[in-house]
Amino acid sequence: MSKLFQARFATTVNDTHCLPATPLREVAFAGRSNAGKSSAINVLCNQKRLAFASKTPGRTQHINYFGLFAKDDLLAYLVDLPGYGYAAVNHETKYHWNALLSDYLQEREQLVGMVLIVDSRRGITDLDEQMIQWFVPTGKPIHILLSKCDKLNKSECKHALEAVRKQLQQYDPALPDGNGESKKLTAQLFSSTKRIGLEEADNIVIKWLFEAETQEDEITS
Ligand SMILES: Nc1nc2c(ncn2[C@@H]2O[C@H](COP(=O)(O)OP(=O)(O)OP(=O)(O)O)[C@@H](O)[C@H]2O)c(=O)[nH]1
Ligand SMILES: [Mg+2]
Asked: Which ligand has the nearest atom to the CA of 59?
């Protein structure tokens, strides 16, 4: 049983000043609106409706915190971030999302890694690149889930993964051509509906949250 299975909704915030004051680690799920963030959280936590997944884009508009428990002990958090790139919102809302996401990603000490959900049919877009650019300077790892890969055939999947890994090289010169994996910028195929890539994604999130080697920079605040 994964350590992610005992997850419960904790809190929702709309302002970086209201983020939980906690020493616990957290992993954030970011991505375009409708990319499949909430679905990925649900399937990784083995729950149907923990995070609210919806056909209506722009559904997750706040930062939602989910607590991970062992019995009654709260161990860490998963964080569902508001989706970006949703056209039908006004300028002010877009501005607010931008500020919220950039502040959170760049400044949140408790955040140990970002899972970036990218629709495998679409690949990395300009807005995804913006997220990567905000996060890379923190030195923390990014793992890309190429979501909805059930919609692609085998060779399309292969090409989608290769293309993303190639794109990531510009941010990390240590990432070798094609198939190589860098520690800080990794990518995999994923499908919530067909449960593809679950174990690989689960391992990464668990490693970031709980493994000793990532604990070296203990949070002091
Ligand atoms: N075929 C397929 N559909 C998926 C998959 N993951 C999510 N979807 C569908 O895509 C739509 C959006 O999924 P959500 O998980 O709500 O996306 P989100 O990124 O949380 O969206 P926002 O909250 O708007 O930012 C829903 O209709 C899901 O059922 C997948 O792996 N395969
Ligand atoms: Mg959502």
From this structure: 1
With respect to residue 220, please indicate whether it lies within any of the assigned structural domains.
Answer: no
What is the pLDDT, as a whole number, of residue 177? 52
pTM metric for this prediction: 0.92
Asked whether 167 lines ligand 1 (CB < 6 A), one says: no
Determine if ligand 1 sits within 6 Å of the CB of residue 192: yes
CATH of the domain at 115: 3.40.50.300
Question: Which atom of ligand 1 lies nearest, measured to the CA of 80?
Answer: 20
Q: How confident is the model at residue 163 (pLDDT cuts 50, 70, 90)?
A: very high
Which residue carries 């994604």 as its tokens?
201
Contact assessment for residue 167 and residue 122, using Cβ atoms and an 8 Å cutoff = no
In a domain, 40, yes or no: yes
Sign of the dihedral through C-alpha 158, 58, 93, 65: negative
Q: Which atom of ligand 1 is nearest to the CA of 86?
A: 24
pLDDT given for residue 209 in this prediction: 97
Output the CA 152–ligand 2 centroid distance in Å: 22
- If one counts the domains in the chain, the total is 1
* Residue 23 is assigned to a structural domain of this protein: yes
